[in-house]
Write a structure and sequence with these properties.
Layout (H helix, E strand, L loop, with lengths): L4 E4 L4 E5 L4 E10 L2 E8 L9 H15 L3 E4 L2 H9 L10
Parallel strand pairs: 4-5
Antiparallel strand pairs: 1-2, 2-3, 3-4
């Protein structure tokens, strides 16, 4: 499934247009060097197609490219990082 992800810094989220509703990965910035991924949402019609994983991967790549550490408040993000050890180095200790 082709997913076009956009990063909206003003609203602190990564979004993918899924037709009537957007899928999103929302984050907060508790400090200049930290992103806290707080919420993942995928419309029911797009679930089970890897959309959440693509959003999370995009967010983690953004964090890595910009030298930021990550807090995974969202349980979906936490699970993704646990299953993908190459992203564990981004976790804020």
């Amino acid at each position: 499934m082709e997913v076009n992800i956009k990063h909206d810094k003003e609203y602190q989220q990564f979004t993918a247009n899924m037709g009537e509703e957007d899928a999103e990965l929302a984050y907060a910035t508790p400090s200049e060097e930290v992103l806290d991924f707080t919420h993942t949402f995928v419309p029911e019609s797009a679930r089970g197609k890897g959309v959440a994983n693509k959003l999370i991967e995009e967010g983690l790549c953004y964090a890595e490219e910009n030298g930021k550490k990550v807090i995974a408040t969202c349980p979906v993000v936490k699970k993704f990082i646990h299953k993908n050890p190459n992203y564990q180095k981004l976790l804020k200790e």
